[in-house]
Amino acid sequence: MNGAALVAIVATIGNMLQGWDNATIAGAVVYVKKELNLGTTAEGLVVAMSLIGATLITTCSGTISDRVGRRPMLILSSTFYFVSGLIMLWSPNIYTLLLARLLDGFGVGLAVTLVPLYISETAPSEIRGLLNTLPQFLGSAGMFFAYCMVFGMSLMDSPSWRLMLGVLSAPSIVYFLLVVLYLPESPRWLVSKGKMTEAKRVLQKLRGREDVSAEMALLVEGLAVGGDASFEEYIIGPVNDLTEDQDPEAEKEQIKLYGPEAGLSWVAKPVTGQSAIGLASRNGSLVNQGMPLVDPIVTLFGSVHEKLPETGSMRSMLFPNFGSMFSMADPHAKHEQWDEESLQREGEDYTTDAGGEDSDDNLQSPLISRQTTSMDKDMGAPRSNGSVLGVRRNSSLLKGNTGEESMGIGGGWQLAWKWSERQGEDGKKEGGFNRIYLHEEGIAGSRRGSIVSLPGGEINPENDYIQAAALVSQTALYSKDLMNQHPVGPAMVHPSETVSQGVGWSALLEPGVRRALIVGVGIQILQQFSGINGVMYYTPQILEQAGVEVLLSSLGIGSESASFLISAFTTLLMLPCIAVAMRFVDVAGRRTLLLTTIPVLIVSLVVLVIGNVVNMGTVLHAIISTICVIIYFCCFVMGYGPIPNILCSEIFPTRVRGLCIAICALVYWICDIIVTYTLPVMLTSIGLAGVFGIYAIVCVISWIFVYVKVPETKGMPLEVITEFFAIGARQVDAAKTE
Question: How far apart are CA 225 and CA 595, in angstroms?
C-alpha cells in the first residue's frame, strides 16, 4: 500500500502545479493589465490561453498515452510546466506571454487527464478512491500556497507579475526529477503491450510483496474488450466435502479448482437462487420493478455492495489457502518468464508440459506452455504452434509462494479459470477456457459451520466452504482461432498475440464501453454546469459585502491584497473537507457521496437566489450569503469535485482507457470554456439570481442523473467494473430486442 501511495503523491504534483497556476494567473493578471495596457479582450485571452492549450492537448493525449505509455506523458507534462514558467519569467510582450500560457495549458491538460488514469491503474482497489482524491487535495493546496505567495508579493512597492508566474518553473523541476527517477510505468499499460516481466517487477514494488500472481493474471484478463459473459452461483469447498455421498451424475456438475499447496484441490458446485448478484442479473437488472427508472447496470453494481461478507475487504474473502487459484508450482523447476521477449528466445524448441492429457486435472498453473491439439496428440510428440500457449506447471507469472497468503485481486474478489469440454460433431473433443471472477456472498449460512444444508447438496458443518457469485466469461487469451484448432486440454494464446491485434475506435461501439461513456461524459458536463465557477467568481463580492475587506483595509491592507487573502482563506477551507472525502470515498462510496452532497449544493444555491431577490438588509444578506458560499464550497469538494474524475478513470477497459478518458476530459475542458465565457454575459442579461437559479436546476438534474445512471464502484477491481458494464449493457440490449 505504501508504494502505491507514494507513487500517487508524486504523480499528483502535476495537479498541485495546476492549482498553483490557476491562483497565480488570477493574481498576476491584475498587474499584467496595468503594465501592458491590456483591454478586456486581451486580458481574457491571457487567462483563457491555458484552457485553450489544455483542450488542444487533450484531443490527442489519450491515444498517445495508449501508444507510448502513461509515464512519458507525465514527464512531458512536467517539461511543459518548466518551459512555460521560464518563458513567463522572461516575457517581454503580450505575444510571448500568450505562447507561455499555451505551453502551460499543455502541461495542465496532460496532468488533469492522465494523473487520475495513472493512479487508478497503479492503486489497490481498496484505496483507489482515496488516492484518486489526492489530485483535488493537492490542487487546492497549490492554490492556497500560490495565493499566499501572491498576497505577500502584492504588499511590495512594485509587485512583479513575471516573478509571480515564473516561480512555477521551480516546483516543475522537482516534479520532473521525481517522475523520471521514481515513477514507474503503469503495470496495466505494460501488460497491454505484452511486457509481462517488467509489469511483474513494477507490481512487486507497488505492493511490497513477491507474490503478485493473482493481480498479474487479472491484468492480463483486462485486455479483453467485449465478449459474452454470464452470472453463475457456486458453493466452493475442499474436494472431499462437496463430493461425499454424491452420485456420478452429481459429480459431473462439479468444477475443479486448484490452490497453492501441492496435493490440495477445491471444487465448485453450481447452485441457483442464493446469490445477490445472480438475482440482480436475472431479475432486478432487467426488470427493476421497484425502481423502474434506474439503469439496470446501477442495480447490478448495487447487488455487490448490498450483502458484503462480515470480514473486511482488505484481504481475500475466501479461505486463506485458497490463494490465487492456480498457483501450484514446483520449487525445483526452471523459472520461465512469461514475456514476449522470452517467447522469442525460446524459438521453436518450446514444447508443452501438458503432454497431450485431455483432462482438466493437470490445470495447475495456467497460461504458459504451448497448446497440444488433438492432431498433435494422435501423432505423439507435440509440436510448437505459433504463439499459442497451454498449461505449463512452472510458470513464474502465476506462481505463488506456498504457505503464503494471497491477497486475491482486491475487494473480496478472486480470479479463477475453468476448462469445459464436449464432444464435437466430428467426434473430436472440443474445449473452451473461461475465466471466473468469484465474489463471496456475505449472507446468512455461507460461513463455516453455520448450517448443515444448502441447495444443491449436503455440506458437512465442520468443514470449510463458501458460497460465491461467479461472473463467467471468455478469457482474453482464448481466441476464436484457437477454438477452431480443437485443442485437447487447457490452451491459451500468449498475451503478445492478444495485444498485437490492437483496439481501434470501433471498440467504443461495444455496448459496455458505450454505456460507460454515457456515464463519464454526462457527469463531466453536469459537473461543469453545476455552479462552481459562478460561486468562485462571486465569492470576493460576497465577502466584501460581509465587511471582510473593510476590516482588512483598516489594517493597512489594500483592496487587491485583501482580495488575494480572501481567496487564500476560501481555498484553505476546502482542504479539511477534501480530507473528509478521502476518508469516506472508499467506505461510503462514490455514488453515496454524490447523492448526499448534491442536495446540499441545491439548497445553498436556492438560498443564494432568495437572498438576491428578497431585500433582507445588507448585513443579514452578507451573513447568509457567506454561510451559503462556504457550505457550497465544502460540499462540492467532498463530492462533485473529485468523484467525476475518479469514476472516469475506473469504468473503461484497459485497452481503450486512455482514449475514453481523453474524450471525457475534452468534454470537461470545452464545458469549462463555455461556462467561463458565458458567465459575464449571463450576469448582464439575467442577473445573479438568474445565474444561481440555472445552477440549482442543473444540480437537480445532476442528482437525478447520478441516481439513475451512476453505479457504485468502490472496492471493485477495474477489470471487474468493466465486465459488469459489459454484461449489464448486453443484457439490457437483449431485453429491448425481445
Answer: 30
- For the chain, how big is the Rg over CA atoms in Å? 29
For residue 9, how far is the Cα from the chain centroid? 16
* Main-chain phi, psi angles of 478, to 5 degrees: -130, 95
Spatial distance between the Cα atoms of 359 and 3, rounded to a whole number of angstroms: 41
What is the C-alpha separation between 274 and 453, in angstroms, rounded?
13
Task: Report pLDDT digits (tens) over 310-367.
Answer: 443 333 334 333 333 333 333 333 333 444 444 443 333 333 333 333 333 332 333 3
Condensed to tens digits (0 to 9), the pLDDT of residues 531-559 reads: 887 777 777 666 666 666 666 777 777 77
The answer, as to whether pTM is greater than 0.85, is: no
Determine the straight-line distance between the first and last CA of the chain, rounded to whole angstroms: 47
For CA atoms 29, 35, 39, 45, give the dihedral sign: negative
CA-CA distance, 376 to 485, in Å (whole number)?
A: 11
Q: Within a 13 Å sphere around the CA of 730, how many CA atoms are in the beta-carbon half? A: 15
Cβ atoms 530, 699 nearer than 8 A: yes
- Contact (Cβ atoms closer than 8 angstroms) between residue 521 and residue 664: yes
Tell me the one-letter amino acid at 525: I
Q: Which residues of 143-175 are buried (b: 16+ CB within 10 A; e: fewer)?
A: bbbbbbbbbebbeeeebebbebbbbbbebbeeb
Sheet-wide strand order for 413-423: 255-258, 265-271, 229-238, 466-474, 429-440, 413-423
- 280 contacts 299 by C-beta, under 8 angstroms: yes
Matching residue, cell 427508472 = 293
Are 173 and 161 in contact by the 8 Å Cβ rule? The answer is: no
Give backbone dihedrals phi and psi of 147, rounded to 5 degrees, phi first.
-65, -40
Going from the C-alpha of 166 to that of each of 28, 161, 309, the distances in angstroms are 11, 8, 54
Give the residue among 642, 617, 388, 615 at the shortest CA–CA distance from 532. 642
Q: Residue 393 — pLDDT band, cuts 50, 70, 90?
A: very low
Contact criterion met (CB below 8 Å) for 391 and 353: yes
Cell of 592: 453515496
Long-range contacts at 241-250 (CB < 8 A, ≥ 24 apart): 241/459, 241/460, 241/463, 241/464, 241/465, 242/267, 242/269, 242/457, 242/459, 242/465, 243/267, 244/460, 245/458, 246/457, 250/457
Residue 266, helix vs strand vs coil: strand
Q: Give me 384's grid cell.
A: 510448437
**Can you tell me the distance from the alpha carbon of 62 to that of 657, in angstroms, rounded to the nearest whole number?**
8
The answer to whether residue 475 scores a pLDDT higher than 90 is no
Cα–Cα distance measured from residue 567 to residue 563, given in angstroms and rounded to the nearest whole number: 6
C-alpha to C-alpha distances, 363 to 265, 394, 553, nearest whole angstrom: 11, 12, 78
Largest CA distance in the chain: 97
Please give the Cα distance from 124 to 5 (Å, whole number): 9
